[in-house]
Design goal:
- It is a single chain.
- By secondary structure, this protein is of the alpha/beta class.
- The chain has six helices and seven strands; from the N terminus they run E-H-E-H-E-E-H-E-H-E-E-H-H.
- The protein has helices spanning 18-32, 59-70, 87-94, 121-137, 160-163, 165-180, and strands spanning 5-10, 36-40, 73-81, 84-85, 111-118, 141-142, 147-150.
- A hairpin with a 2-residue loop joins strand 3 and strand 4.
- It is 40% helix and 20% strand.
Length: 181
């Protein structure tokens, strides 16, 4: 494989969110290791509610699905809202249903790194577990290491993403290593 295409999706509607920063950090690491990268966060994934069986000509959704089709690996990140992934991230992942009829259905056989950020360990860890369940349902292969980041007071706050850099690097290496095999 020449230059693998790694796509990061998730975050919040705020570009400066901890999750968005963590995803951008992961992509910077992947790019430094020779990957092509695409970040889908904020307005790029803030879609109308998904409805099973829908078809769409919304250019944002068409672009989103096109980028997912071109991806060799994914990194999915979500803030922990009340102990689980955000509605915006789940809704974006629901649009992966539009890939079901593709030669590679959903994320079949694709390595997927996972990142969860929250203002406490309980929400970060439970969000990570929820992300893993959703990615399994979409036939993706979550990396052995998923990264939970506690952004709460006294736990790193604004520096929490930087503090997690070694773990994020290991996760990115696992995504890229899977593709080299």
């Amino acid at each position: 494989m020449s230059k693998p295409h790694i796509v990061a999706l998730g975050g919040t509607s705020r570009p400066e969110s901890a999750t968005g920063r963590a995803l951008a950090h992961c992509l910077a690491l992947a790019e430094a290791r020779g990957a092509r990268v695409t970040l889908l966060t904020g307005e790029a994934i803030n879609f109308p509610h998904y409805e099973l069986g829908c078809t769409t000509d919304d250019p944002r959704i068409v672009h989103f699905v096109s980028v997912l089709r071109e991806a060799d690996g994914l990194i999915v990140g979500s803030p922990g809202y009340h102990g689980s992934l955000s509605g915006m991230v789940k809704n974006a992942l629901d649009y992966a249903e539009l890939l079901r009829g593709d030669e590679r259905a959903y994320f079949d056989g694709m390595p997927v790194g996972l990142v969860a950020t929250a203002g406490g360990w309980q929400a970060a860890v439970s969000t990570l577990a929820a992300l893993r369940t959703v990615i399994h349902a979409l036939r993706g292969w979550p990396t052995p290491l998923g990264v939970a980041i506690n952004t709460g007071p006294g736990a790193g706050g604004a520096d929490a993403v930087g503090d997690a850099s070694p773990q994020l690097g290991t996760m990115v290496d696992q995504v890229l290593g899977f593709l080299r095999r």
